[in-house]
Amino acid sequence: xxxxxxxxxxxxxxxxxxxxxxxxxxxxxxxxxxxxxxxxxxxxxxxxxxxxxxxxxxxxxxxxxxxxxxxxxxxxxxxxxxxxxxxxxxxxxxxxxxxxxxxxxxxxxxxxxxxxxxxxxxxxxxxxxxxxxxxxxxxxxxxxxxxxxxxxxxxxxxxxxxxxxxxxxxxxxxxxxxxxxxxxxxxxxxxxxxxxxxxxxxxxxxxxxxxxxxxxxxxxxxxxxxxxxxxxxxxxxxxxxxxxxxxxxxxxxxxxxxxx
Length: 260
Prior knowledge:
- The protein is an alpha+beta fold.
- The chain is built from 8 helices and 11 strands.
């Protein structure tokens, strides 16, 4: 086994100690093009992980995520990152942000990602006419609905084993979403979209509830991720019964020399 493979496995094992809070980091290791991976270690024990690669708000490899058990591990990881002012730093543990604010003068960007999770005990079921799972027989329906999914992308969803759902009214899709990004004990509700003319009628709430219920037939948890500024999406998550599991605050190092 090569060094990079060993490091990926060690990082995954470390992050799995808290699968829901660390979901963004675990997904980065599994699905993203990891540009840098650093481990903070004492002897054979991993104490922290830093991952650089594409971020949730950017397609470029300028996003850094990290988690650690103690201040010494944070310092070790931070020292391994060259030119940190080039990157957006995503931190979901407040004590790490406080430490790096002191040591590296981090400044908040005003952006961030909120993570939610639910299980069978917190799911609130909703329904609405026209709500159903899509199948490959619906490719023509998807194409004519102009719902943001092309026929080719829909084929990709089916080929990947993802479960697309929709609300169909008047012969077209007016609201759609799918499952995606399985990770350890959970899968995520992704790609939620409602036609502008049909918004404000609770369709997204019913759709997200259905996709989440479907995920729970395969996994222990269903997850949901949205951004700080998407209040409507946050309201849908709360209505369906999702509870907060992480708050990934985004930070930047101001240009210029480190004040320390």
